[in-house]
Amino acid sequence: MDLVPAPTGKSSSLKSPVVEVEAVDMAPADTKETITTMENTAAVGNEAMQSEYETDSDDSGSDLEAELEVLHDEELRCGIPDACSLDEAIAFRNRLHEVGKAVFVQETIGADTITAKKLCTAFGILPPDFLDGAPDSAYHPLLAIAISREFSRRPKLPQYNSIEDAVKLLKESKKIIVITGAGISTSLGIPDFRSKDTGLYSKLEHLGLSDPQEVFDISVFREDPSIFFSIAKDILPTEKKYSPTHGFIRLLQDKGKLLTNYTQNIDNIEANAGVLPENIVQCHGSFATASCVKCEHKVMGDEIFGDIRKGLIPECSSCRKKLEDDSLKPQGMKRKRSTSATQKRRKADGEDSSDDDEDYELPTPGVMKPDITFFGEDLPDEFGRRLIHQDRDQVDLVIVIGTSLKVAPVAEVPGVLPRNVPQIYISRTPVSHTSFDIDLLGDCDVVVSELCRRAGWDFQHEMIPAGEKVEVSNVEGYESRHMFKVVGA
Ligand SMILES: [Zn+2]
């Protein structure tokens, strides 16, 4: 019952093109700018701070930040002289998220209720030795970094930490959002093709691309689709197999717990596992369908798989038919290309894009482009619509699997959802730019099978050995971080 159009502001911010967003915990590179920002805060209000923390920089932080010593919550818990206690620190963080940066600054250092030096410790920054004896204002730049970093972060919910908490959440939740990325398909041998260090991109060097990601750039595609199709056969879904993690998502569906699987993957493997289309949002599109770049005629993806596998550029059958019909009319275009000319063009790898072609609208059928989202294209509308108008009010658990969450739009999901909804992270390595309540680290296939085992769920998959034994150990210094390792079968 969701026919209300998305408010344009919200949805357009979610419809941003697929771009890498830098980790938001990156501090502004220019310390001077931070000082200025800090001094202006009371007068200018939130906007100055806002622009400061939104400033993205390619520098990996200032010298100042490099020298900062991080204070972990565990240390605050034990107590450090002149530092906030862990309880105080959590109260300050919660207050910041409650009132925003400007008000927070006003009612703390602005009202002289606490020194900037001590407040830094609430956000995990140990006052550096070189500032010893300096006036409190010398700590303002540090505090600005600390506050901005914390504010852009969803605060971790303190009540969820252990593996038992994770299992309990899994068992009790009824409307689970699962966000997935390339990491759930790698056990099937499918390369993380958007990442720059896959073998796939080395194949592209001979094409003379300055940046391998140009393969997925819509303007490059429009100019010369042969570049994309020269590698498309390597990323085309083949067998009907799926990983244990896909099977886990299917299991959540069978248990009536799956609200939506937002996947960044375009391999459409969720379908192989039996996840229903109505439970999936393919955030970057998929090979499931393809559309003509000229007339937008849409077909099922597998109709063009034959051409793709042969290394051909698939053409639109609707355009072709129209051209054939037109050629029968007396006013038909005189310079209609013959089929053999088209074939020649396919093989010429775009070398024949002479001026003539551009000046003269040649009647060729449009190229069929798989409906995966290229850089420079709008994301499927379904993403923002469903997230904002349907899922946001229902979700009771978020599980992020096999993605570093650095690519829009999924990177924005944790921040868009109500902050009291618990979030679990499953991946090989933890991320620092987003706070999850529980981090379950390791091979995601292993993690999900162990979760099912502990939940008492019957979960079988050919890639999970029958008596598999998994050891779960706590990562030192992080109450809510757990490492999963197979120790025997
Ligand atoms: Zn067409």
From TrEMBL:
Residues annotated for Zn(2+) binding in this entry: C292, C295, C316, C319
Q: Which Gene3D superfamilies match?
A: SIR2/SIRT2 'Small Domain, TPP-binding domain
Q: Kindly state which keywords UniProt assigns to this record, in alphabetical order.
A: Metal-binding, NAD, Transferase, Zinc
Needed co-factor(s): Zn(2+)
UniProt GO MF annotations? histone H4K16 deacetylase activity, NAD-dependent; metal ion binding; NAD+ binding
The question of whether Protease is a record keyword is answered with no
Q: Which GO terms describe its cellular component?
A: nucleus
Q: Which domain of life is it from?
A: Eukaryota
Q: Where is the Deacetylase sirtuin-type domain?
A: 156-458
Q: Where is the composition biased (Acidic residues)?
A: 351-361
Region Disordered, as annotated, extends over: 324-368
Question: Which residues catalyse the reaction?
Answer: H284
Pfam families hit by this protein: SIR2
Q: What is this protein called?
A: Chromatin regulatory protein sir2
